[in-house]
Specification:
This protein is of the alpha+beta class. It has helices at residues 2-13, 16-21, 68-74, 86-91, 101-106, 108-115, and strands at residues 28-33, 36-43, 46-52, 62-66, 95-99. This is SCP2 domain-containing protein.
């Protein structure tokens, strides 16, 4: 899982449109997959730190909790219906959002595009 997150970090830095979308986003986000926690720290749209958890001392604005199989299907080049979107995973009860959902909604396009960066065969 850490490899995909590091890949997201590298891809994010190659996408100037994402730097523009995330320019107002400076938060820490929890990504929890199969109980494994990762704290992603963004500063003005750049993923500056990836801290493995668990940690009770690391505050986060919101969290995205899912299972590894659902995330693997989300990262397919052409995901099946429901697996194509973060809220689709939530609707199918394969993920949940914790914390300040308003912060997520304010930066929804940025966060969705960042989470989709590991999609295999993605052509941009």
């Amino acid at each position: 899982m850490l490899n995909q997150i590091v890949h997201m970090q590298a891809e994010l830095r190659r996408r100037p449109h994402l730097a523009h979308l995330g320019r107002l986003f400076s938060e820490t986000v929890l990504l929890k997959v199969d109980g494994e926690e990762f704290y992603l720290t963004f500063e003005k749209g750049d993923l500056v730190a990836i801290l493995p958890g668990p940690s009770r001392r690391t505050p986060y604005r919101f969290g995205f909790v899912t299972d590894g199989e659902a995330l693997k299907r989300f990262w397919e080049p052409l995901p099946a219906p429901g697996f194509h979107d973060l809220f689709g995973l939530v609707k199918m009860d394969r993920a949940r959002i914790e914390g300040d959902i308003l912060s997520l909604v304010k930066n929804l396009r940025f966060f969705k595009e960042v989470m989709a960066l590991p999609r295999a065969g993605e052509a941009r």
